[in-house]
Every structure is written in C-alpha cells, then in structure tokens.
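Ticket #4471: complex job returned nothing on first submit. Input attached below:
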Amino acid sequence: GENVEQHPSTLSVQEGDSAVIKCTYSDSASNYFPWYKQELGKRPQLIIDIRSNVGEKKDQRIAVTLNKTAKHFSLHITETQPEDSAVYFCAASKSYQLIWGAGTKLIIKP
Amino acid sequence: DTAVSQTPKYLVTQMGNDKSIKCEQNLGHDTMYWYKQDSKKFLKIMFSYNNKELIINETVPNRFSPKSPDKAHLNLHINSLELGDSAVYFCASSPGQGNTGELFFGEGSRLTVL
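Support reply: We reran it on our side without changes. The output follows.
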C-alpha cells in the first residue's frame, strides 16, 4: 500500500527566510497531493494541493512542486512570518483514501 | 455558520466509561471521517463513511463504533475507555473520497481518560 514519508520533523527558520518541507511517496499511481496546516490547538486546514498532471503550483508565498519520476513533492514557503508557525502535513492519494505524512513542526524565529 | 461541528469539545472521563462524540456537517458533502490525533500529532484515519456506507475501517479496537444516521451526521461511540484512548478526535468531511478534494475538519474533541 501507499506510504508517505515527511522530512524534517522539526524545522526552525529565521523570520523572512524560506522554509522547505519534503515528502516522498511509494505508490506511483498516486495522483493527488494536498498540504494541510495545523496551528496550535486548531484544526488542520488545506493550504495548497497539486494533482499529478501539474509540476508546480503557487499561491502567494506558498508553492508546491511535484516530481513524479522521483515520487516526491515539496512545500515551499517564502518570506516566512510568525503566523507561519504551525505543524504542516503532506498527504497522497490515488483513490478513496488519503495517506498522511507524520507532520513537520515549523518554528519561525524572530 | 460552522461547516463541520462536533460536540463536545472537551471530555474528561474515567477508565471503563462509555462516551460519544457527535459530528454534523452542513456542506452537503457525501463523505465523512473520524481521525485520531495523539500527543505526537500524527493524524490517524479511523473510519470513513460515504453516503452513510462504511468505506474505511482501519485497525481500530471494536470498542469504537461509528454510526451514520444520515450523510450529514457521523457519530463516534467508545465503550470501556482506556488510558490510551486519550487524544484529540477530529471529524471531517469532503465532497467525495480521497483524491477528490479538500477535507474540512471540525474543531476537534479532546478526550482525556483518567
């Protein structure tokens, strides 16, 4: 079955710098890759997603890239701000079930 | 208007008790889920219902029983609570299954078993 690995588990960056979180998946048939953000004490919320027919997608300071050959996808956050501090989850799906990564805690240092 | 609402938000109970968590969505979605998030923050799928039909039933003790009276509601009943059941339980809904789009989560129900 599908397996999703997410790295790093914790990422600490200076405010204003960029942050990159990487995920790899095992099932080449997976075709949908969302990223969720969970602030402390809150619910997870979708921030961006990408489908396998697209290599990159951007939304303001957030971008996701997908490399189908290598079976990995990454979340890029530029010009990080204090409100970017949260746990970020990647996931992969080919049909009825989402397979989740273990999460990355992003810490923004002032 | 809250899209996915679950009650109660907090539950503190003794080992061995039975408790229920209720979930309702007003988004008109076909699929609803229960997730467990433990202290390490990992999101573990427990159950998924599509139009009141169970489609995902992960390896969860049979003390956990979901019930979907209609496609807008998915409740979770837990019998004989154990210390290891302490976690945050999230209800979620989506328009379809898995790869069809965004999951909308409820605020979570924090269960503490003493």
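The mean pLDDT of chain B is 92. Closing as resolved unless it happens again.
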